[in-house]
Specification:
The complex is a heterodimer of chains A (265) and B (257).
Chain A (H helix, E strand, L loop, with lengths): L5 H32 L6 H11 L4 H25 L6 H39 L2 H7 L4 H40 L3 H10 L3 H27 L4 H34 L3
Chain B lengths: L14 E10 L2 E11 L4 E5 L6 H8 L7 E6 L2 E2 L5 H8 L2 E4 L11 H12 L5 H14 L15 H13 L5 E5 L7 H18 L2 E6 L2 H7 L2 E6 L2 E6 L1 H5 L4 H12 L1
Parallel strand pairs in B: 3-8, 3-9, 6-7, 7-8
Antiparallel strand pairs in B: 1-2, 1-4, 4-5, 9-10
Helix pairs in contact in B: 3-5, 5-6, 6-7
The chains are: A mainly alpha (265), B alpha/beta (257).
């Protein structure tokens, strides 16, 4: 029988209490999003502004990361395939890896770091400087203006960024293949898409929507509940990135299991 | 003992608070607060830091929920209002924050336009601009219209914060430490502005402060908060002519400081 000292028991029960209270708060936060999202007035201008912030301002980082991912993945796969004389499989192998896994994951992880932390820091700083309270007392719904607009923006833009990452990564892969085998652009893409099914594209889009929603929601939740001044803002941004990444990997495992169970083999 | 020498009929007062209690965990901040504020009256709530002054006005505008007690504002029981009714009530309450709480990412003009365009959708762009200019002129900061909050001084930020609340023409103004962190001259300017707002906009106000100059200049009535209760209410001279040691100490240390 475990015999904990009273202090330890109190500490553990406090931790468990806090965990379940936080979990309940987060659940309420998500429910509130679905209640508010369909209720007028719609903050269309703010959603467009946030789409610009999430999408356009992430393009440079996404281009660089996507291109290098495609290039390096192809380069690293080549020796193993060359050993068994299967370099002609490279385009389809790379396409499967990029479209099924790398593009959604790389986009989501980059956005969790760049967009999620930005949202948490921005809302956190608004919270600790009473700007959110100021909105509330001037009879503007801060949840609708700040949270709904940002979550919608990430949910809409991350699937688009994923498509773009996929394209750029394939271009990186093409560069390596063309350099080594002089394969033409059309041949490369014909071979690449030969093994790609509708289910692959659909599941990647679906995953990206879920990742986008997760990143927006976690960033907003952490920012909206920031406390203890500037240190709290930094903590919120940090926790937002860590929690988003953790949830993205959990979601990846679940969605891959579901998608694989739908495959015809 | 708390003084209860006034009429407590909520319909005669714009703000009526009865037996208000609020705790944060083990910290019992408000322990049975009673306060009546009449139409177009400036009431100053004085007290040391951490006595629950800011908590009191946050409860009045519904930012915090009380544990117990009744808060009647403009004839409405705040704790019984649903979200829509609370928003309607908030349109009649202006809240000037201690930190000014200006939106960092917006210019002064956008800060003022933000609540106005959401609640006065019938106004044309020209009318919105005119109202912004009128309010900025009233607080003497028309020249800052296109500046960002980060480019303003502390006193200017306070004035713009007040202007942002005035743009919706509130009936009640709640000032949270309006002169904290300001030099004496800027503090006097803010005190004069509070009096000007009362005259020009016909507002009823609660001013939270620990600055005695602010209390004397702006308050029609002063209420002294100590240990979560009002220990004395009256005019400035009535309150500070009291023999209560706590009040005398507060007066003495304010000037020694």
């Amino acid at each position: 029988m475990i015999n904990l000292k009273p202090v330890e028991r109190k500490f553990i029960s406090k931790k468990i209490d806090t965990f379940f209270i936080d979990l309940y708060d987060a659940f309420q936060f998500v429910i509130r999003f679905f209640k508010e999202v369909f209720k007028p007035p719609y903050e269309v201008k703010e959603v467009i502004k946030q789409c610009y912030e999430v999408g356009y301002k992430s393009l440079f980082l996404i281009t660089l990361t996507g291109f290098i991912t495609g290039l390096v993945f192809t380069k690293q796969s080549r020796p193993s395939l060359a050993d068994v004389g299967a370099t002609s499989w490279i385009p389809s192998l790379v396409a499967i890896a990029i479209i099924r896994a790398l593009a959604p994951l790389v986009t989501a992880l980059i956005c969790a770091g760049k967009v999620g932390s930005n949202i948490a820091a921005e809302l956190g700083s608004m919270k600790v400087t009473e700007q959110i309270d100021a909105m509330e007392v001037s009879a503007v719904n801060p949840f609708k203006y700040l949270v709904v607009s940002r979550v919608l923006a990430t949910t809409l833009m991350i699937p688009l960024l994923m498509c773009y990452t996929g394209f750029v990564a394939m271009m990186g892969a093409f560069l390596n293949v063309h350099q080594n085998e002089m394969t033409s652009f059309i041949t490369f893409f014909q071979q690449a898409f030969d093994k790609i099914s509708f289910l692959d594209i659909f599941s990647s889009l679906f995953k990206s929507i879920i990742y986008g929603f997760t990143i927006g929601m976690v960033g907003c939740y952490k920012g909206f509940h920031a406390s203890n001044g500037t240190a709290g803002v930094g903590k919120a941004a940090n926790q937002s990135v860590v929690l988003s990444m953790f949830l993205i990997f959990i979601e990846e495992i679940l969605i891959v299991q579901i998608t694989n169970s739908l495959r015809p083999w | 003992m708390e003084t209860k020498n006034e009429q407590t009929d909520p319909f005669e007062n714009e703000i009526s608070i009865m037996d208000l209690y609020k705790s944060f965990g083990e910290n019992h901040v408000l322990r049975g607060v009673n306060l009546q504020v009449k139409n177009k009256e400036n009431v100053v709530v004085l007290g040391r830091s951490g006595t629950g002054k800011s908590v009191l006005i946050k409860i009045i505008c519904g930012l915090l929920k009380p544990d117990q007690g009744s808060i009647n504002v403009l004839g409405k029981e705040v704790e019984l209002l649903n979200e829509k009714e609370l928003q309607q009530l908030r349109l009649q309450i202006g809240f000037s924050f201690q930190s000014s709480a200006l939106y960092d990412s917006m210019t002064v003009k956008e800060n003022l336009a933000f609540p106005l365009v959401r609640h006065s959708k019938h106004l044309s762009k020209k009318e919105v601009n005119q109202q912004i200019e009128r309010v900025l002129d009233a607080v003497g900061l028309l020249q800052t219209i296109n500046q960002m909050p980060s480019e303003l001084s502390g006193g200017q930020r306070k004035r713009i914060g007040i202007a942002r609340t005035l743009i919706l023409r509130p009936k009640i103004m709640l000032y949270d430490e309006p002169t904290s962190g300001l030099d004496p001259i800027t503090s006097i300017e803010i005190n004069n502005l509070i009096n000007l707002v009362k005259q020009e906009f016909n507002t009823t106000s609660i001013i939270i402060t620990h600055d005695l100059t602010c209390a004397k200049t702006t308050g029609d009535k002063v209420a002294m908060l100590f240990d979560g209760k009002f220990i004395k209410q009256g005019t400035f001279d009535e309150v500070f002519s009291s023999d209560d040691e706590r009040i005398q100490n507060f007066y003495k240390y304010n000037f020694i400081k």
